[in-house]
Amino acid sequence: MNKKTPCTLLATLPLAFSLGLTLSGCEQLGNRVDNASATTAPIVLHHASQQDINEIAATLEVKYRVISNVATDKCNATLAEGACFEAELSLTAKTAIAANNWAIQFSSIMPVQSSNSNEFTIAHINGSVQKISLSENFSGFKAGETKRIAFRASHWMLSEHDALPNYLVTAPSLQARVITSTQTTIDPETNLEVIPFIEPFTDERKQFKRNADDKTAWLTSESLYQRNLEGAANSVPSTKLIASAIIPTPKSLHVDPLHARVDISKGLYIDFTNVAKKDVNAAIARLATLGVKQGKEGFPLTLNINADTTKPLGSYQLLVGKKSISIVGVDSNGVFNGLQSLASLYTVGQHTLPVVTVSDEPHYAFRGMLVDVARNFHSKEFILSLLEQMAAYKLNKLHLHLGDDEGWRLEIPSLPELTDIASKRCFDEQEQTCLSSQLGAGVDTNSPVNGYYSVSDYQEILQAATARHIQVIPSLDMPGHSRAAVKAMNARYNKYQALGDEAKAQQYLLDDFNDKTQYSSVQFYDDNTINVCLESSYDFVLEVMTQVKKIHSDAGQPLTRYHIGADETAGAWLESPVCKDFIASNEVGVTKMSELGAYFIERVAGILTSLDIETAGWSDGLSHTRNENMPDFVQANAWDVLSWNGHEKVHEVVNRGWQVVVSSPDALYFDLPYEASPKEHGFYWASRHVNTEKIFQFMPDNLPAHAEIWVDQQETTYIADDTKTARSKGKPFLGIQGQLWSETTRSDEIAEHKVFPRLLALAERAWHLPEWALPYNYQGAVYSQDTHYFTEAMAKTRDQKWRLFSTTLGQKEFAKLELADVDYRLPTVGAVVEQGMLIANIAFSGLGIEYQLVDASGAVQAWQVYTKPVNVSAAQVNVRSRSVNGARAGRTTNIVVH
């Protein structure tokens, strides 16, 4: 038996990595191992030409493999608290590569710490951008040869969808090209993006868990079957209950005890009385889309406004009688909401309505949804469609995140550089024509991830929102998360400097060019923070806000609230000469660098007040300010993770007297995955799974109580002590908001997948206070899974209500989403094979289930419809869900038959 030398062991890099071996001194052994039969004649290298770059991009095969997420002593102990993952890139040349002096630029959510290769080096450049460079030992590629680069990056990679696409081949003075093998494709069954170069995860312990203490279980078909079964054990709602269900659940609903129904097959004949048609036309149009049209022969419907100051805005009464329908709202929004409840009563394809009496009002005044279009752009059409569905389920605030590090998405006519340059990403190392290709954007400035809303586009969005009683709250993040604006204004500076106009060059500059501070933002940028000591920074804010206010006014929706973000970067400005002089002057009471961020927020809030605009921001940045320097009204979005004692910070902010919008990521970040599986799309820093049921379970009024029913990011229990930070009585929350961040949400289709159906559960919690929710204890309490303030009876009622809610979605609401062309996420199917019998279930009754048999040889049979347990004879059974209209399939999972 041949003995293996240390160099030979490098043929299996995972083992070599664990032993701490490197390729140094092994004379390109990795290449010989992968290509034992290749000729040993050396390749004569030459400087890369454009043709070389084009051919490398077209023919280089890239594969990405996660080796382990479990940190070792090889991780950099000073970074990411010592956490890192090990991965491997393999590069296979389909044709020989004799070119030299080229590089590969790629994006990674986490920065690379170190790499092991004799021929390549990897370095973190900025943000998500990493660069693979050729070392002096690079020997070229023979045809068919594979070279491997092992590397370590900070934190973890627990999802296959963390891999970012569009690796670039670059060389000095040549055009960068996207490596074809790293481009995304679209799954024709699910309509979702596929990343073909990531190797599927197979090792739960090393690839799916952070460390030995991580108790997260990889959700399989079998475990999902058990979870669905537990939900089904509750009383199954009757057909009559589903028929009379309204989402979101009204405060009071009484169904005719004889279960009478009225015929609306001829549509509705509407008497508007004192209601302006323009205020309700959008709801009437939606009814028509669902199949309920207007006509003189239709069933009588009377609309009326009866002002009642004792009721919240948007309240209404709906009476479906045997001879007529009546909707009375306290305002036009209330009438609009009543019409949407009428639409919710309706079942697509049926032409009758139950006889009901509804009295309804919202639990929260603020019922919001944030969409981040800055990181990756989302089209005007997507936003218009989202507004339609928000209105359908009585959400009333669209927080539109228009500016961040990776993009500026709103035209400001007086500052064209903001969209000429900062609305697109490509390969321009000087960033004078576009921003750098962050987040795998590629080089095509016409890619859907690039773009902006023109003034007319944005005004169309505003007008659509107004017609649906939705307020648009724009956000252009500052002073941190501002790289797009900083780089655009730098380009503006260069333009006017070249023209010899020093005053214009300096007018809106956001950067102190003499600032040598080294810092890193939470997304690993070292240049993304507005310099808060420059007067030109405040001139910029005033100019932008004046312009945005005019755009809103011209569209008929006045700008009354603006979200400044209030994010800052710790450690910024420390070596800025401008800031040192600013502090030395002590003109405004700022005596140290740590106070600069709060000063900026206070001053910007003052600018907004002068424009008659209310201030909103994220709670962490706002909490650094001094109350006496802030306006009377402040909206604070509280986003702290509950298992990190997040309730303490939320209560601290609301106790200041500010209007708190609960934005807890544990339940309200829709960029997080639905389920704990590496196949699921989304980040997982706050939770490994945020499915629709979890949002339904959320009790926003009692944040610490979730320690009794939920677990932390590693699926371990936690304790929430609310005895020292209890919320003061008489300080309710203003509302709640769902968040769709878009770092890896690269298309409208993925955005819809992430938002729906979670948006419906968000609407349920924003509008309706359930009887099963645990009231908040203003005296304070300690909560854990050993305490039982949330009783078994509460849990039983909650689960029964969930069953009604989920069944109503599956049997009534999903069909309506499909008519609106909304690609909601189709759930994975739970399934087991017991004694040769396939038994399957699904979270939303009403969706189809399909199965497919695979024999021992790998031969695959055609998909079949599952309706009841069926005998199967196969080595493996695949299962998937099917949409109501049959047009789409869900993600396939499988059961290995033992």
UniProtKB/TrEMBL annotation:
For this protein, the Enzyme Commission number is 3.2.1.52
Q: Where is the Chitobiase/beta-hexosaminidases N-terminal domain?
A: 58-223
Tell me the first and last residues of the signal peptide: 1-23
Give the GO molecular function terms: beta-N-acetylhexosaminidase activity; polysaccharide binding
Q: Which UniProt keywords apply?
A: Glycosidase, Hydrolase, Signal
Recorded catalytic reaction(s): these are: Hydrolysis of terminal non-reducing N-acetyl-D-hexosamine residues in N-acetyl-beta-D-hexosaminides
Task: Record the organism.
Answer: Colwellia psychrerythraea
- Its EC top class is hydrolase
Q: Which InterPro entries match?
A: Beta_hexosaminidase_sua/sub, CBM2/CBM3_carb-bd_dom_sf, CBM2_carb-bd_dom_sf, CHB/HEX_N_dom, CHB_C_dom, GH, Glyco_hydro_20_cat, Hex-like_dom2
Per the record, its GO cellular-component terms are: membrane
Cited PANTHER family: BETA-HEXOSAMINIDASE, BETA-N-ACETYLHEXOSAMINIDASE
A Pfam family that this protein carries is CHB_HEX
Question: Does the keyword section mention Signal?
Answer: yes
Per its UniProt record, what SMART domains does this chain match? Answer: CHB_HEX
Protein name as catalogued:
beta-N-acetylhexosaminidase
Name the residues annotated as catalytic in the UniProt entry.
Answer: E568 (proton donor)
